[in-house]
Design goal:
Layout: E1 8-12, E2 19-22, E3 27-31, E4 41-45, E5 56-58, H1 64-75, E6 94-99, H2 106-119, E7 134-139, E8 145-148, E9 159-166, E10 173-175, E11 178-180, E12 184-185, E13 195-199, E14 204-206, E15 209-212, E16 214-222
Antiparallel strand pairs: 1-4, 2-3, 5-13, 6-7, 7-16, 8-14, 9-13, 9-16, 10-15, 11-12, 11-14
Length: 227
């Protein structure tokens, strides 16, 4: 039988116990599968793709007219109340609105869903769909994000793939530069109508907006918990 070239046979320096018992102060017993001990084992594994720590950029996801349409929709919707946020400084000068699915915007959901499916070929995540509505955000002067991830608690813990769609023309604002851990600054994300996709666990930051308004549309594809 041919050997799968994608499978690596690796020695295990130590096998994690299948069960741990304590007496309240120290380890009392450790268990391993029958016939095995902690040392001298090996396992077969398929390495994760190198793309798991990258971001993917796509130009011309939305046309200029479509960006304007999405902005008009969002501005007619109720704004989120951010006054009770634990870190209000992160929201300084920003305005957020959920764009829930409606017949007139189904094309937008289809557009983003198709892109999510295409980009996910690079990651191989198990995705169920968008558990949260699309989020429209305006970042005004002073608005910024310190280093953060898109993973959180509750429903946010199921996020796997994130999308940031640029609705502003880059001439409309200064600052608001997006950077990712290990990737540095991605100037191309400022292109009008472009989209940047990244794993929800990839750390990123946005420098303060110093002039004008940066408008973006955010989407998260969710799936079963990481294993």
């Amino acid at each position: 039988m041919a050997t799968d070239p994608n499978v690596l046979t690796l020695p295990l320096q130590y096998m994690i116990p299948t069960d741990v018992l304590t007496d309240g102060r120290s380890l009392a017993a450790l268990d391993w599968p029958p016939g095995l001990t902690a040392f001298g084992n090996e396992w077969k594994a398929i390495p994760n793709p190198t793309s798991l720590g990258t971001a993917h950029w796509r130009p011309h996801v939305l046309g200029a007219d479509e960006c304007a349409t999405v902005t008009a929709w969002a501005r007619a919707l109720p704004e989120l109340d951010l006054s009770g946020q634990a870190a209000p400084a992160a929201h300084l000068g920003s305005h957020m609105r959920w764009i829930e699915p409606r017949e007139e915007n189904h094309w937008l959901y289809h557009r983003i869903g198709a892109l999510m499916a295409q980009v996910n070929r690079q990651f191989g995540f198990t995705l169920a769909g968008l558990s949260e509505a699309l989020l429209y955000v305006e970042y005004g002067p002073g608005s910024h994000w310190h280093w953060r991830m898109d993973l959180g608690s509750g429903i946010a813990s199921l996020r796997k793939l994130a999308a940031v769609i640029q609705l502003s023309d880059p001439s409309e604002y200064d600052g608001g530069t997006l950077s990712f851990v290990g990737l540095g600054t991605m100037d191309e994300v400022r292109q009008h109508g472009s989209a940047t996709f990244h794993p929800a666990y990839l750390g990123h930051e946005m420098t303060p907006v110093t002039r004008g308004t940066r408008r973006v549309l955010l989407a998260w594809a969710s799936g079963p918990a990481f294993r």
